[in-house]
Amino acid sequence: MSAVLPSLPSGFSGEFKGHKKITTPLRRPVEPVGRYFLAHASRTIRGHTWSEYEK
Amino acid sequence: MSAVIGIAFGNTSSSIAVANVDGKVDVIANPDGDRAISSTLSYVGEDEYHGNQALSQLVRNPDSTIINFRDFVGLSYSEIDAETSNHSALPIDINGQIGYQINDKKITIDEVVKRNLKQVKLAAEDYIGKPIEGVVLTVPTNFTDAQNSSLKKISNDAGLKVLQLISEPSAALLAHLSADEERFQKDKLYVVADFGGIRSDAAVIAVRSGILTVLATAHDLGLGGEKLDDALAEFFAKEFEKKYKSNPRNNRKAMAKLKAACIITKKTLSNVQSSTISIDSLSDGYDFHSTINRLRYELVTRDVLSKMAAFTEIVVKKAGLETIDIDEVLLAGGVSHTPKLASNIQFLFPESTVVIAPSLDTKVIDPSELLCRGAALQASMIETFDDSEIEEAFKPHIVNTQHIQKPIGVRSVDGSFIEILPKETAYPIRKTVLLKGKGDVLIEVYEGDRTVKETTIEPEKQSGDEDDEEEYSDEEPETIREVVYVPGEKLADLALKGANGEVEVILDINKDGKLTVSGRSGDVTVKGSI
Ligand SMILES: Nc1ncnc2c1ncn2[C@@H]1O[C@H](COP(=O)(O)OP(=O)(O)OP(=O)(O)O)[C@@H](O)[C@H]1O
Ligand SMILES: [Mg+2]
């Protein structure tokens, strides 16, 4: 029962429109526990991309 | 079995756990058969006692029995309140360091902690049958850097090489989440409330794509199970005094006996409805025998239990949230076995919040074992890393991460906000959702704004009997409040032409905060970045 996307308004031109950047984020520590953290750490350390990690 | 273990070292008890190859965790009992091993050392003549054997010396040898020392790690004498242990060996000043005078010898806090950890190590090696190669220890979230490095050093000196210190609430939550892999996948806001022997601690923790972030913490260093023991001891002291006209309160040994018995009675009442208490020659030669039921116990300890429950609300406020924002409250620590505490907390939170406690669900992990289990899991996870890798992983540039402050999602055709990344998600992150859409569709990416939806439920009227209606008129209609996010600021529009009915929407925020939106249906793919 997933949500339904609206149909494209007739006047819409082009493909992508960026309107605004995301609200200022907050930098804080994540807890260095669990395998999802360890995956995050090794991604950051080894500069792995998401697709590499997902293999 | 792994040779790395997890240890929860509390002021009241120490517990040890080890993870097996299949991911199952064993909590290790010491040779006396105790899984909650008293963090107590006692010296009688030339002998050193540890654990529950040492604790039982509080009656006969209080001055050479050391309890509640964990929080003293890494502090100097001037930083502590020495009054905290007036029924056991008192901390003394040894050249600025905290220590104890045992018979005619002085012993420093470092030595006390080291001996406690050595005993814990022996118990673990006895169980595992080989030397311990490394340990993950839990520490409270308010331990200072100095306390953490002091504990590491002492543990290493005790022959327990510290792989990592992890925070107590994260250890508890890790154990809870790991018990069922699906739990890790669900983005939720947790309160972890830990009620120990002499302190209570709480944390609000966001779980986002398996990553844990602490949003707020609270500590009450004067609220714990001992307060329940004191209230119960006072209740029985009154009863005893009335019966025998003898006051046990002025007699240190009598009170030690009474308190030890009260601890057992308290624990019993967590499991059954009534308990007896029996003490031979309590005071002036009189024996004491009595019974108490759970209801009476809950009255006697009402103030303490209410304070503990209210403490969970304090941490939610500190996080800038309301109880309706919290998905689950995980109860940890020995006192969390208390049924009334769990029901008090359940009462403070809305019905939609799940309170995890043994009295509400018999299948939950024992709250006394959550911390050591989480530590053991973490130990087994990092076992294969070498020291430099571990050191690198915990450096600030890895751990300090940007977190989005508003949820990001898309607007559905009915105008509602479909959350994809909840607030407090750490990035880099990538997440995919599957939505419906046919033909030419518009993917509108929004940040969500928090609103509170109120639903009023009229009290149920007695059906059929009109005369009775008057009696129910004083019943207030109940208002149910819930958090609903609605589309706020629009971030981007992405057109996708020729959707086949199912559209995959992917949000990706890279480490520099660049948001990429992708849409995919069949072999049509569109994307854009801001
Ligand atoms: N079944 C039970 N029912 C009620 N209380 C219990 C039960 N089991 C243990 N307790 C109480 O829980 C407290 C100890 O909890 P815990 O072992 O979590 O403390 P700790 O972490 O060592 O101490 P602290 O958090 O103060 O440093 C004691 O007061 C003990 O009597
Ligand atoms: Mg504790």
What can you see in these coordinates?
- The complex is a heterodimer of chains A (55) and B (530).
- Chain A is α+β, with helices and mostly antiparallel strands.
- Chain A has helices at residues 34-46, 50-54; strands at 16-18, 26-29.
- Chain A contains two helices and two strands.
- Chain A is elongated.
- Chain B is an alpha+beta fold and 530 residues long.
- Chain B is built from 13 helices and 27 strands.
- Chain B is globular.
- The longest helix of chain B is centred in the N-terminal third of the chain and has 20 residues, at 109-128.
- The interface between A and B is large, with 41 and 81 residues.
- Strand 2 of chain A pairs antiparallel with strand 20 of chain B, so a sheet runs across the interface.
- Bound molecules: adenosine-5'-triphosphate and magnesium ion.
- Adenosine-5'-triphosphate (ATP) is lined by residues 10-13, 36, 70, 196-199, 224-226, 263, 266-267, 270, 333-335, 337-338, 368 of chain B.
